[in-house]
Amino acid sequence: MLAANFRIETATAASRTIALAGAGLVLVLVVLPLFVSRGLVQDMIFVFYMLALAQLWNLLAGHAGLVSVGQQAFVGLGGYLLFAFTVILGIDALAAIVLAGLVTGICAFPTALVVFRLRGAYFAIGTWVVAEVFRLLIAQWKQLGGGTGTSLPVSVTNEVAGIEWIKRVFDVRTAAARDMEIYWVALALAVGTVLAVYFILRSRRGLALAAIRDSELAAESVGVDSYRTKLWVFAVAAAATGMIGALIYLQKARISPDAAFTVIDWTAYVIFIVVIGGIGTIEGPIIGVIVFYLMQRYLADFGTWYLILLGGLAILVMLFAPRGICGYLSERYGISLFPTRRRLVSDKDSPGM
Amino acid sequence: MALLETRKLTAFYRDFQALFGIDTRLEAGETVAIIGANGAGKSTYLKAITGLLGGEPESVWFDGKPIGALAPAEIMQLGISMVPEGRRLFPSMTVEENLLIGNYGRSVPGHWSIEAIFELFPRLRERRHQSSTTLSGGEQQMTAIGRALMSNPRVLLCDEISLGLAPIVIRDIYQALPRIKATGTSVMLVEQDIVQAMKVADRIYCFQEGRISLTGNPSALTREQIHVAYFGS
Amino acid sequence: MIGWIDTVIQGVLLGGLYALFAVGLSLIFGIMRLVNLAHGDLIVLAAFVILVISRALGLNIFVALVLAAPILFGIGYALQHFLLNRTLGRDILPPLLVTFGLSIIVQNGLLEAFSADSRRLDADALETASIALGGGLAVGVMPLMTLVSAVAVIFALNYLFYRLPLGRAFRATSDDPEIAQLMGVDNRRIFALAMGLAMVVTAIAALYLGTRATFDPSIGPARLLYAFEAVIIGGLGSLWGTLAGGVIIGLAQTIGAHINPEWQILAGHVAFLVVLVLRPRGLFPRAVD
Ligand SMILES: Nc1ncnc2c1ncn2[C@@H]1O[C@H](COP(=O)(O)OP(=O)(O)OP(=O)(O)O)[C@@H](O)[C@H]1O
Ligand SMILES: [Mg+2]
Is C283 inside a domain boundary? Predict the structure, then answer.
């Protein structure tokens, strides 16, 4: 036994097949808006950005132990920065999305300085306070409409770089071209987020995160700087969340502090997606967002009852299937699409187990 | 019939089996010592009796009734109390409060009261309003024993009450044992200090890797027998 | 000058309300390390319970509170017994997410039952009554009663914790739940009792919330945040610290509002963040944790 060679594996044969299938799916999604209705394109944009937000929340809560209920702080900030960059500074919207992400990421540092003083559940409420502070501060920003908010001028929304090109090549109207462009950006952000989370978890930092999650003390004793690792993840997630926020409000074209910093849309829904799908996995939010989209589409008209149902479902899942649909499937059938867990394999074991 | 009996008692920590079918008896009025090396399963055995591990109903019997599946609070109410490993006093409480909480679940008339504890361990009286975290190791152990006695238990389980204490303090504490026995309490003593254990025990069990490797009357056992039972051959 | 003195007095009195919000949260965290994200919504629920009782039976709200208290105790007990006890463990996610879900359920359930309309608890003549302090200063009787109630509640709870066997059992469970069981304490029952007790305090808080200003189903989360801030500023573990924390938030809010009415809430949050940066363990941290 000792003579056997050991390797560290994260991928399995099945998951390689799935990676190929995933690439195929992304290709299909890329060309999809050319063939489907605008309504569906807009729905898909929603699915993409919710998926990206869910992946990021999951990275924080499921992997870094940073359970935030204040991610709306960064969605709202990203949205408002988009408005500031385009309306006030006249920067092109696409560039503004990237800039908004950068600035949001920078804002994550002073935020962390405060909320990282709180642990566990207190951290959660601390992030909520910060989101409220952001909301109240931005409501003082009269140039962007103060407490009532403002709309993006048509000149901004219709003149995003690339819209003219899309109109010409695909022969569509401005509104449709805008949807298509936002769709592609949203798709890129969603896929980019999934891949980024995947590679972060497989990197040395991912290993550090796993160690911290298991035991912060033990991790520190083997040289993991847990504060810096968490800070880094927090800032990366904030930057990406800010970009998504910017994109969301480029699509909505109207922003107000109450909508941009709402805990329901940008945190409660996101948590629901992750919990239903399966916390601590990459495929969890993907499954979760599909479930959520279907519920949103067919049940959202029930208003308060719909929200009660979401809350109730999340509680039931948390109590009886805490690892969500994904955990249930992998327990039952041993499926894992995005293996981020390292497995020590001896050459004597059959591969692809 | 024995007052306290375990029958084929097993215990697990997840997949790890810590006890393999332990059969022990403690008669009324008896003092029994459990000895064994580190990790032999002695503390696990006591935790299983007090219900902290949750087990099969018929694996532990007390007073002719199966208690193996009862909750710790219920078992305590029947009259089994424990001095836990490492004393585990309540840190937010004073000495007196630590004693007072001892009979929260069971208050029956009997010899032990806060006054009686202070007579047993006079050093506690002067420290009664002191926070339990500021006590010396010996005083903490005395408080832990007193806390367990407050409910006038029928069986007192003690987990390594001499651990980490100076010999003179150990002597003080062991001097209390005969007085505890005199009130009719049966005592189950887990001890690594074999010499101490042999002195006070009517009978011993030696544990080795979750099994009983030796049992008998201390005076009838030879050094070799104990050595083998303790360390393995 | 008079304006400033008045602001400070109002701030301290408002702090009494926030302390009442916070005591329930502090109690629950202290005993079972549970952070209840639904706390604010439960305060609003309590206000509706009092409202319904006083309307339905035509009772004075104080009498309605007496009737509401056992109902809310029962709600708290049942909530802990059937739901929250199942979430307790080493992992912080289940309690957090379950109480977050609960928050959404309570909030929307109230919305469904009572609509989004603003309500008020009617304290009749007491509402406008005030005591003149001379020099043009006056304090309202209701705000004063709020602060006095907060102090009384904290006295009563401290008496329970430090003088009565049940209180010792609460503390034992908080210190070391495993060993507490060996004292005959049934932790789960203790937790349920603690949640019931917290709900009674919440009912008292709700009464003053409802008489001070209007309320509707959506205001819960903000109350959770004030309560949370008071607890953290006070330093975990001391109810008097929690009172001090409440007063600090109350003062910050009234002073902020005095400078610019739009800054009221913001000033409270900012005060919290400043304390957090300067004294991360709060003003009165407990020695042993
Ligand atoms: N909470 C636990 N989780 C997992 N394994 C445990 C746990 N507690 C004890 N064990 C294991 O069970 C075995 C028996 O432990 P136990 O504490 O009963 O030994 P002991 O005889 O009391 O040792 P000591 O004399 O050192 O106190 C050991 O191998 C120990 O590692
Ligand atoms: Mg031991």
Answer: no
- Three-class SS string for C240-268? HHHHHHHHHHHHHHHHHHHHCHHHHHHHH
Q: With a cut of 50, which residues of chain C have pLDDT below it?
A: 288-289
* Residue C203 forms part of a structural domain: yes
pLDDT of A348 over the 70 cut: no
User: Which residues from chain A sit within 8 angstroms of residue C34, using beta carbons?
Assistant: 121
Q: Judge contact between B152 and B77, C-beta under 8 A.
A: no
Tens of pLDDT, residue by residue over B2-13, are 899 999 999 999
pTM of the model: 0.90
Average pLDDT of the residues of chain A: 87
Alpha carbons C144 and C123: distance in angstroms, whole number: 14
Q: Which residues of B touch C185 (CB under 8 A)?
A: 73, 101, 104-105
User: Helical H runs in chain B?
Assistant: 42-50, 72-78, 95-100, 114-120, 122-126, 137-149, 167-182, 194-200, 223-231
Domain count, chain C: 1
Nearest CA to ligand 1 atom 28: B39
**Cβ-nearest to C182 among B82, B97, B131:** B82
Q: Which domains does chain B have, with CATH numbers?
A: 4-88+153-231 (3.40.50.300)
Answer yes or no: is the ipTM higher than 0.95. Answer: no
Domain CATH for C73? 1.10.3470
Residue C179 Cα to ligand 1 midpoint, Å, equals: 17
Whether B38 is in the pocket of ligand 1, judged by its Cβ within 6 Å, is yes
Least confidently predicted of A18-27, A108-117, A285-294, B114-123: A18-27
